[in-house]
Amino acid sequence: MPLDLPQFKSDTLPARRPRTNKRTLVALAVVGVFFLFFLNARVSNPDTTSSVQEPPSSSDPNKHIHDETTLTPPILEEGEEEQSPSDDPDLFPIDDPTSEAANILPDQELFPTTPNDEDKTQSSILDEEEVKSGENVISPHSNQHSSLPHPLSEESQDDIIINDSNHYTHIVVIASQARDMTRRQLIREKYFGLRDNLLPCMRYNTDTLYKFWIYGDMIPAKTDERRRYEAEKMEWDDLEEMGKGIKFEQTSILEWAETTLADRGITYDYLIVQDVNTFIQLSNIKRELDNGVISESTHSPVAINSDTPTNLVWGNFAGAESDKHAFIVGSAAVKLAIEKQADITMFDVNGPHILTNMYHYYESIGADVESAVDATMEPEAAAEEQERVIPLFIREDGAEDTHRFIRWENNVESVHAEDSVVTHVYQDAEFTDLARWTYLKPSPVCYPRKSAFKDGQPPLDPLDDDQEEVTTEDDEFPTSDNSTSAAMAGLTEGNRPSIALMTSSFIYPDNCMEPSATLSAINKRKFAIRHGHSFVARSAEFAQQRGRKTVWGKIDAIEKVLPKYDWIFWMDMDAVIFNQEHSLYELLDDLRERYPGGTEAFDKNVDFIVSRPPRDPMLNAGVFFMRNSPWSMEFLREVQNNVPWYNKGSAYEQGAMAEIIENPKHKDNVYQLYPDVHTFNTFPKFYQPGDFIVHYAPDKCPSPFVLKGLEFAERIENGEVIDKLV
């Protein structure tokens, strides 16, 4: 009953204060404790200060207020660094050491997006304060575009998926003339994250394959430019040379895809084609194709039909020269264009671009085709058939179209987030600025083997006598006493050391090796691919020599590459692999078994394996093994410091190496095969069937002999037995 009813009122007892609920008190106490913890955290962490954005100043013409759809760069707290995609644990998972992904982390940052400070220019760099504050920085000429978002603001990427097939979702084709060497290197770096070939792509094992489609006149032979071009071919293996008279036209590209690629067993979903003077936001184009929505950030997105996603043609169709500067076409549409090429050409015999003609052809007959299909099929079946026989055309240059394929206006501020293609970019500096301005995120085309170098590598100098060596059970880098053992213990399938087959790609100015150098590199690369080795050809280290013979570039190149592998196997340009059957793993295992001191002594001591032919006064440095170890790095330094041999012929760097290994302190680290002419360094006069490598080192130009040796090697590979070479 209510307490205020008359029978419960008392005139004698004093009024009592209501009792507070105990549960309420406990709840308030808990809330108070958490509030104190929160205040304490805020006070102890000054970096969590509020980041309220100031509205842009009306006096700054580069700052504009946009609608709620505007995309902005990420806001960084004070002291916070941008995360590199190569640091993303989801992008390169390496927890499982037995998985292939555990061995494919690039040595360099895969996604370089920030240039050096000295390269920054006013026209190409977003103001750092604007980026940090999240304010929009776009061209003042338009209020219809969104500002460019920083790609690293997205969520972490998917786990690595190794593509072991010959099918690629995207094949990127860059039409280029032979002389466009500097632009090709920019494209490798900016599009694909390939800054050098130290950890090369031995196979394209992502969803993307790329090729430079080389057309036009070849660079004249016996010129410096031709020598550099041949070096590029040897080092990158990504140039597809067209025959004489083949021009860059859409038809030529489509026919190449349907013949040359098909003959190699390569299939694809989409061709993404551009000329070398065009810049494309490749990662954005790939994302839109994968998501099935084109122009998704605009007011007129186009959905790709999920039943026939590759029956698509995307580009400009005005009939101008720029129609071929960039276009995307699905594999089904390519086959349709080739199949109906005669009809399409007859429709407009003067039109130079097959895809443009195809667009107008279907625009003309499309209604009739649809009517004919509708008359013979049920509605649902008719709709499916129409999507199969009529491509989806996404036009960028019509009056009502999105115009995302633009021509370069000589400033990055005119380029916006939704501009997928920028044509007529002739200056390399402008191409670099565009990559920076658009936050272009490279799309990996391979997952190379991760570098053998590990943090905590022991110093090159020996420890002091009174200094104790500190090791832990988690120490990933072994000491100099057991590093060989760790790398060599049982060369089984799952426990193999990383090996790089190295060679020179530098052609000397006398042009002696120009006819055979690239063919010799192909011989070595084929062997490396077959057996899972890396192939590293280098020319820059030879070209940089000053004050000593060019051949010293060999030592520079080995010093550059060796830290990234467990072993390197050096072959001179004039050495040819005759026996492709046995891997370098097997060769190392055989040498380990043959070592006079036994396998344990080999594992503990041997860092340098080299042969010395009978009656020769010194080792032959044309072919040898070298292990990544502190001893090897010290040895190479000693060789580099052996100044008297800089120009002392005819041995040069070989003489320096031979002299240094005579020092008794190096005796245990060198395994010199003497006299030996059959293990891995055979001169032609000593050749026997089954020998691994024949080294042509005549007193005169070796090129004719190398060409003959390559012919012998091919005949042997085809099953013929060659008894002798001379």
Automatic annotation (TrEMBL):
GO cellular component terms, semicolon-separated: Golgi membrane
InterPro entries, A to Z: Glyco_trans_34 (IPR008630), Nucleotide-diphossugar_trans (IPR029044)
GO annotation terms (biological process): protein N-linked glycosylation
Pfam families (alphabetical): Glyco_transf_34 (PF05637)
Acidic residues composition-biased segments: 77-90, 462-478
Transmembrane segments: 25-43
GO molecular function annotation: glycosyltransferase activity
Entry keyword Oxidoreductase: no
Feature: compositional bias, Polar residues: 46-60
Location of the region described as Disordered in the Swiss-Prot/TrEMBL record: 46-153, 451-483
Similarity field: Belongs to the glycosyltransferase 34 family.
Protein's name in the database: Galactosyl transferase GMA12/MNN10 family-domain-containing protein
Taxonomy of the source species: Eukaryota, Fungi, Fungi incertae sedis, Mucoromycota, Mucoromycotina
